[in-house]
Specification:
heterodimer, A: 279 residues, mainly alpha, MetI-like fold, 78% helix, B: 381 residues, alpha+beta, 5-stranded antiparallel sheet, 9 helices, 23% helix, 32% strand, disordered C terminus
């Protein structure tokens, strides 16, 4: 029908009809769900001006919180890249009893209320918890430290890596590995030169998703972090604190800063991927 | 390098994929492994490459016991049906891969690798495409890159697994001719797997016909076509007409037709099946003993006339092909003809279906009507 409309206006009919309504719907939907709330954040914080925002985020406490949020998210995403890829590899390549059960466990961090995860992790890693009590004599403290923040962020980010790498890995044909082997490549050469380049884009996507999720994580982290100002206090928590103090501008200033940094990081990753694909 | 295969056995779970394979391949030979799906031909090829560990038996490359060697150390050039090119590498890097993964002491210099890749790409007629990625090549080009990649390591043997299977008919024909030429230029011992009898007969010096994990016959193209040793081979190389008969001495009396055939070679005695190809019949006059049949269908295809006949005595339907020169112009449906097989093979009567035949046959009197499911039997997972 749409093609006919286009044709009657003297435009070239498109092969796939319906661009105008589809685009319109997409923009409307995106506006209602994403763009308008985000614009609100910027609008609210714009009252402070650039210098005002700068003054808020350079106070030692806010700066430390931002540094912790992004730093811990980065480290957690890196940990997930390594172990998530290994998990994906095992799921794709091996069969073992209970595989489907483990497969379902992977998705639990998606579904579990994050507060529940946070409380469970805290109970495990606190100095008198199962794991914490083992690590305590070794001088390793996880609960109520920055390490705890990383642990919680690793927990909630794992499925993102596994679920993005798994289908791509499944697509790497066994033929490719066999071809490499007959050409004389040893296992590690096959992995590093044939398999890894094939799954690298998926790993990067998984990293980006895991990182973004960890930056925005709140529920699970605040239970295990202990929330000592300037030490183990994450930026999203600081936003809540500011709100409770009726410092709306301060809260939105932190929020806007997080948005901008996240957006720039994700954009960089996307551009990197596009560049890698073109090669 | 010559290759000897001795008593090779392979199971996949309950499936007996190779049931004692013995085979000698001469140095420089171009050998075809031909058979229906599930006959074990691909498994045998993969066993030679070292990709399938054997349950029993040995494979020798010259004097080297290849069974003791890893896949990497066997130095075989393997070409896959689906090309298996490394998608993120250029054509150059694909071809250079086998040389570049060698350890530093054995690896040629960068310049030497570049020279070799260039020479190989010229050999496969892809000079100038070094910088392309596999996605930018046609199917025929991809398969030639795969071949160049396999040749780069100077393989002891070149193994091709249905190399033309993914290509369209025209490209397949060109590549076939080209491969034959390449083989005579380079002289690598080459084994290729195919289920296309025409391809095997056209390309290979010798053909190995496999069925259910066994070798049915090994021979030159003429051998297997003119002297098929088993009904399976006869059937696999063309649609036969099967006539029941009884053999005594050098005579065969066809059941219910009172036709006596002479057979010079030593033949099985008693109940037999006479296999004759559609083209191997002649029309005879009423004074000569022959099989009488009524024309059901006349089909003219160029220089051949294909006739479907219902035999008067047995009501069996058979198909024969007569050249224009031997045909009478004004045959019509319903006419009666007397025919006689010129060339045929005689096998002991199968009590039941002896082996699944690849082509469904309409032979009511014999109860053979099988098709082999087109499954690739491989140990995946």
């Amino acid at each position: 029908m749409s093609t006919a409309v286009f044709a009657s206006r003297g435009k070239t009919p498109r092969a796939i009809p319906g661009l105008a309504p589809a685009l319109g719907f997409t923009i409307l939907y995106l506006s209602l769900i994403v763009l308008i709330p985000l614009a609100g954040v910027f609008f609210k914080s714009s009252g402070l001006g650039v210098f005002g925002i700068w003054n808020v985020i350079t106070t030692p406490r806010v700066f430390a919180a931002l540094k912790l949020s992004f730093g811990a998210a980065f480290i957690a995403a890196l940990i997930n890249v390594v172990f998530g890829s290994i998990v994906a590899w095992i799921f794709v390549r091996y069969t073992f009893p209970g595989k489907r059960l483990f497969d379902a466990f992977i998705d639990l961090p998606f579904a579990l209320p994050t507060a529940v995860a946070g409380i469970a992790l805290t109970a495990l890693y606190s100095p008198n918890g199962w794991i914490g009590s083992i690590l305590e004599p070794l001088g390793i403290k996880i609960a109520y430290t920055q390490l705890g923040v990383i642990v919680a962020m690793t927990f909630i980010g794992l499925p993102f890596i596994v679920r993005t790498v798994e289908p791509v890995l499944r697509e790497v044909e066994r033929d490719l590995e066999e071809a490499a082997a007959t050409l004389g490549a040893w296992r590690w050469q096959t992995v590093s030169r044939v398999i890894a380049p094939a799954v690298l884009p998926a790993v990067v996507t998984g990293f980006a998703l895991s990182f973004a999720r960890a930056v925005g994580e709140y529920g699970s982290v605040i239970f295990i972090a202990g929330n000592f100002p300037s030490v183990s206090e994450i930026a999203p928590l600081l936003i809540i604190i500011k709100l409770e103090e009726f410092d709306y501008r301060g809260a939105t200033a932190i929020a806007a800063t997080m948005l901008v940094i996240s957006f720039l990081l994700l954009l960089t990753i996307n551009l990197l991927q596009a560049w890698a694909r073109r090669r | 390098m010559d290759i000897k295969i001795r008593g090779v056995q392979k199971h996949f779970g309950n499936f007996h994929a190779l049931r004692g394979i013995d085979l000698n391949i001469a140095s420089g030979e171009l050998l075809a492994l031909l058979g229906p799906s599930g006959s074990g031909k691909t498994t045998l090829l993969r066993a030679i490459a070292g990709l399938e560990p054997l349950d029993d038996g040995r494979i020798l490359f010259g004097d080297i016991d290849a069974t003791q060697l890893t896949v990497q150390a066997r130095r075989v050039g393997l070409v896959f049906q689906q090309y298996a090119l490394f998608k993120h590498m250029t054509v150059f890097d694909n071809v250079a891969f086998g040389l570049s993964v060698r350890k530093a002491s054995e690896r040629p210099s960068k310049a030497a690798i570049a020279a070799r890749v260039e020479a190989l790409l010229a050999l496969v007629q892809l000079g100038g495409l070094e910088g392309r990625y596999p996605a930018q090549l046609s199917g025929g080009q991809k398969q030639r890159v795969a071949l160049a990649r396999a040749l780069a390591i100077e393989p002891r043997v070149l193994l091709l697994d249905e190399p033309f299977g993914a290509l369209d008919a025209k490209v397949r024909k060109d590549l076939r001719r080209w491969l034959r030429k390449l083989h005579s230029e380079t002289g690598y011992t080459t084994i290729f797997v195919t289920h296309d009898q025409e391809e095997a007969l056209e390309l290979a010096d010798r053909v190995v016909i496999m069925n259910r994990g066994r070798i049915e016959q090994i021979g030159t193209t003429d051998d297997v076509y003119d002297h098929p040793q088993t009904p399976f081979v006869f059937d696999f190389l063309g649609t036969p007409n099967i006539l029941a008969g009884t053999a005594r001495g050098s005579h065969i009396l066809l059941d219910e037709n009172d036709v006596v055939l002479e057979h010079s070679a030593i033949q099985p005695q008693g109940a037999v099946d006479v296999y004759a190809r559609p083209a191997d019949f002649e029309i005879v006059g009423p004074s000569i003993s022959g099989i009488d049949g009524e024309i059901l269908e006349i089909q003219r295809t160029g220089f051949l006339i294909r006739l479907r006949l219902r035999l008067q005595q047995t009501a069996q339907t058979i198909e024969i092909e007569i050249t224009h020169a031997a045909a009478q112009k004004n045959w019509a449906i319903g006419d009666n003809l007397r025919i006689r097989p010129l060339r045929f093979s005689v096998y002991p009567r199968a009590q039941e279906a002896p082996a699944p035949l690849p082509i469904a046959l309409e032979t009511p009197g014999l109860g053979i009507s099988h098709t082999v499911a087109d499954h690739r039997v491989r140990a995946r997972n």
